[in-house]
């Protein structure tokens, strides 16, 4: 495999492990990767619906890796992704780390990368739900925060290959954190963003979930596939979390050996400043949603992006 570029959290000693994951889980090898990139660029060149689209390796490999180098499926996901960006500008447009609202929720440590798991190679994202001011912001801001973090990290090959682990501290969350989600946003996020954004989300850990939120989550998960449910882990206490997650990763406030959330967030904010131009340039991509030519998306766009509250998890594509 080719040498991998540096990442936000270094991959020292993980190169062989990442190559193994790429080969066994993603079917990646040099010849197939080169052929797939060539084929995908040609598809983009011939696709009259795509007026502007990134064609660099790092961007296209996001889709090829999440779809295990099936070029047709990667092309379909890319078209869904571009459709999502234009259909929901309130979630995707101007993902600027210097934006006042995004900056405020970032500085509140609502969502912070805390390290890279040496066992799996995955980058670990930590969220403190109670730090999100649900009286001031709604779920649009929460989704934008998630998109900002994902887009900032997705160009890194290690994250494309090994994937992401998310940990959420739900202690102290209130009903306002639930009610700030409209049914339209919940349906749109679950049905569209998860299907259209090329993230390999391999583990979700939820800690200290209040009873009222646990009941809602239980109902939602009753619609989920077995594969998705297997990736969700609930822990009653932080002590239970520490038994499952390496203490080398956890922030100091959570009994781990890592830095404090404040220090970790300061590092991430500096990283985001270095990515600001790249993040804003994503807005230059364009797909013509009114073009009558056949799309790679074989499902009606209206169903993909606005299925309403009756949609379930059953149509989610979980890698």
What does this structure look like?
A five-stranded mixed beta sheet has the order 2-3-4-5-6. The chain has a two-stranded antiparallel sheet with strand order 1-7. It has helices at residues 15-26, 30-46, 57-66, 71-87, 89-92, 100-107, 139-154, 157-162, 175-179, 183-196, 211-221, 226-229, 238-244, 261-281, 301-305; strands at 50-52, 111-116, 123-128, 164-169, 201-207, 232-235, 286-287. The two termini are 22 Å apart. The protein is α/β, with parallel strands linked by helices. It holds the Pfam family CRAL_TRIO. It comes from Anopheles gambiae (African malaria mosquito). Residues 114-262 form the CRAL-TRIO domain.
Give the helix tally. Answer: 15
Would you state the CATH class of the largest domain? Alpha Beta
Nearest-angstrom radius of gyration?
19 Å
| N- and C-termini, Cα separation | 22 Å
Q: Uncertain regions: pLDDT < 50 for 5+ in a row?
A: 297-318
Short description:
The protein has helices spanning 15-26, 30-46, 57-66, 71-87, 89-92, 100-107, 139-154, 157-162, 175-179, 183-196, 211-221, 226-229, 238-244, 261-281, 301-305, and strands at 50-52, 111-116, 123-128, 164-169, 201-207, 232-235, 286-287. The protein has 319 residues and is an alpha/beta fold.
What structural keywords apply?
single chain, 319 residues, alpha/beta, Helicase, Ruva Protein, domain 3, Phosphatidylinositol Transfer Protein Sec14p, two-stranded antiparallel ribbon, globular, disordered C terminus, AGAP007355-PA, phosphatidylinositol bisphosphate binding, CRAL/TRIO_N_dom_sf, CRAL-TRIO_dom_sf
């Amino acid at each position: 495999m080719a040498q991998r570029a540096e990442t936000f959290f270094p991959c020292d000693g993980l190169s062989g492990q990442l190559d193994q994951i790429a080969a066994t889980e993603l079917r990646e090898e040099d010849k197939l990767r080169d052929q797939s990139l060539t084929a995908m660029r040609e598809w983009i060149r011939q696709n009259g619906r795509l007026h502007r689209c990134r064609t660099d390796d790092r961007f296209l490999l996001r889709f090829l890796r999440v779809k295990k180098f099936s070029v047709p499926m990667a092309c379909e996901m890319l078209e869904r992704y571009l459709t999502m960006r234009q259909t929901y500008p309130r979630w995707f447009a101007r993902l600027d780390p210097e934006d006042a609202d995004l900056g405020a929720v970032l500085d509140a440590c609502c969502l912070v990368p805390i390290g890279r798991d040496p066992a799996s190679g995955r980058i670990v994202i930590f969220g403190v739900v109670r730090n999100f001011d649900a009286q001031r912001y709604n779920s649009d801001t929460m989704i934008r925060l998630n998109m900002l973090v994902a887009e900032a990290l997705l160009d890194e090959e290690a994250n494309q290959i090994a994937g992401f682990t998310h940990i959420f501290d739900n202690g102290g969350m209130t009903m306002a954190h639930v009610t700030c989600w409209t049914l339209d946003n919940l349906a749109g996020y679950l049905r569209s963003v998860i299907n259209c954004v090329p993230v390999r989300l391999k583990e979700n850990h939820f800690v200290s979930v209040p009873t009222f939120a646990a009941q809602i989550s239980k109902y939602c998960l009753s619609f989920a596939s077995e594969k998705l449910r297997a990736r969700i882990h609930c822990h009653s206490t932080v002590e239970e979390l520490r038994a499952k997650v390496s203490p080398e990763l956890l922030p100091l406030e959570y009994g781990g050996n890592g830095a404090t959330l404040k220090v970790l967030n300061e590092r991430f904010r500096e990283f985001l400043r270095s990515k600001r131009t790249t993040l804003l340039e994503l807005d230059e991509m364009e797909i013509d949603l009114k073009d009558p030519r056949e799309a790679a998306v074989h499902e009606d766009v209206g169903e993909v992006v606005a299925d309403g509250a009756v949609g379930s998890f059953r149509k989610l594509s979980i890698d």
